[in-house]
Amino acid sequence: MKPYQVAMGLALAGAAALVLFGDRTPGGEIVEPVARRGAPSPSSAAAPSARAQAGAKPEMAIARLVPRAQLVGETGDATFGAGEGVFLGQNWNPPAPLPTAAERAAANAPPPPAVAPPVPFNYFGKAVQDGAWEVYLTRGDKTYIARNQSVIEGAWRVDRIAPPLLTVTYLPLNQVQQINIGAID
To answer: CB within 8 A of 118, min separation 6: which ones?
Structure first.
């Protein structure tokens, strides 16, 4: 064992001995407050009690609690909200600048037309089957065989397969998009 471990063990044994064999009797005396120089004595601040007038030691007085309604008002929880009561809110941010004529015109302009989402399919491969092209597309775990004029997932129609491009139409908005499927092998 190292020397500091021996010292720590002896300290632990000494603390355990104090806990087991130490004096457990509570002290019976009351500690009086200490009078400090320059500070007013507690007896001069408080009104003299009947006991102090009789010549006994002066008694400490505890001030009476002030009701909450008198301190912060009757409004309840709203007292602590921003703008009223003792905790007033303060905003130090500068005011927002007024919009310019161009910004007002842009805000009043009609929304831009809807745009089809990007084609959600990935190109997997292509083949010629009975003289017509077939393109294999994937989306997640599903694989689709795209032929001319076939509809995929009810929203995408295959319009034309002409390598290196596959032309599809997004049916809800009738917008045409293209997928690169590579050159003829």
So the answer is: 177
Which residue type, as a one-letter code, is found at position 49?
S
Q: Which among 130, 174, 115, 167 is positioned nearest to 146, based on CA atoms?
A: 167
Integer Cα distance of 13 and 20 in angstroms:
11
Q: Using an 8 Å Cβ cutoff, are 153 and 143 in contact?
A: no
Query: 55-84, pLDDT tens digit by residue?
Result: 556 677 888 888 877 776 666 555 555 455
pTM of the model: 0.44
Question: Torsions phi, psi of 145, nearest 5?
Answer: -105, 115
75 φ, ψ (degrees, to nearest 5): -75, -5
Which one-letter amino acid corresponds to residue 91?
N
Contact 177, 119 (CB under 8 A): yes
* Angle, CA of 155, 176 and 141, to the nearest 5°: 45
Specify the 3-state DSSP secondary structure of 110.
coil
161 forms bridges with which residues in the sheet? 166
